[in-house]
Amino acid sequence: MFKTNVKLVLLGKLYTISTPIGNLSDITFRAIEVLGKLDYIICEDTRVTKKILTHYKIRNHVKLLPYNVFNDNKLTDKYVKYLIDGKNMGFVSDAGTPCISDPGYKIVNKCRQLNIEVLTIPGPSSLTSALSISGLPSDSFYFEGFLPKKKGRQTKFKFLSSLPSTIVIFESPYRILKTINDILLFMGNRQICICKELTKVYEKVIFGTVEDVKKNLSKQGKLKGEYVIIIAKEGYKLK
């Protein structure tokens, strides 16, 4: 009988792992457990992920791999190769649930094509957290994410104004007032909810019409933090 030196290598698994959106106490026990068992962690910013691992005293010999909009196209195949070689990997964003408004879906898509198992470790999400405290209907909603900065912005607002559901937008402090003005211009004086710095020390929620929220923000001076904007569908009235 002939002997063979061929070694069967089992495919690794990819875990999409949710991390806190602000308050570090919000991580799950399962996330901590899985993070400590991985060979590699793919992350948006290695510095941010390193702080999370240090805070929870997770072993520091796991290798962190950067992955963002600036390098995703050239690194996707490279990282998937690690999974093919049998390495278990995690994917995290800087905050919240990964693959939402970030390029992580490209790696997941590649894994699906190659029948590599992808598992979710659920947890915090600014999208669902904001919806849950907005007071606006969430049985049907449209998630836009970040709006175009210039090209296509007006067209996008016209599209959003036609939707028969609640709308969710992410926005930075640098463009929040411009976006509120554009909502008023293209979508009218609807009911909206602005959630700032969810779960953090300076968490703030503003609820009212677009004009009410605009006045409130205009009085605050220099605006800071990350915002989630929840917009009611056209014609929605408070009961």
Give a brief outline of the structure.
With 239 residues, this protein is α/β, with parallel strands linked by helices.
Could you describe the 3D structure shown?
With 239 residues, the protein is α/β, with parallel strands linked by helices. It has 2 domains: 14-121, Tetrapyrrole methylase, N-terminal domain (Cobalt-precorrin-4 Transmethylase, domain 1); 126-231, Tetrapyrrole methylase, C-terminal domain (Methyltransferase, Cobalt-precorrin-4 Transmethylase, Domain 2, 2-Layer Sandwich), CATH 3.30.950. The protein has 8 helices and 10 strands. The protein has helices at residues 29-35, 46-55, 72-84, 105-113, 126-134, 153-161, 176-187, 210-218; strands spanning 14-17, 40-43, 63-66, 89-92, 118-121, 141-146, 166-171, 191-196, 204-209, 227-231. The strands form 2 sheets. Strands 3-2-4-1-5 form a 5-stranded parallel sheet, sandwiched between helices. α6 (153-161) links the parallel β6 (141-146) and β7. α3 packs across α4, α6 (153-161) crosses α7 (176-187) and α7 (176-187) packs antiparallel against α8 (210-218). The protein is elongated. The termini are far apart. The mean pLDDT is 93.
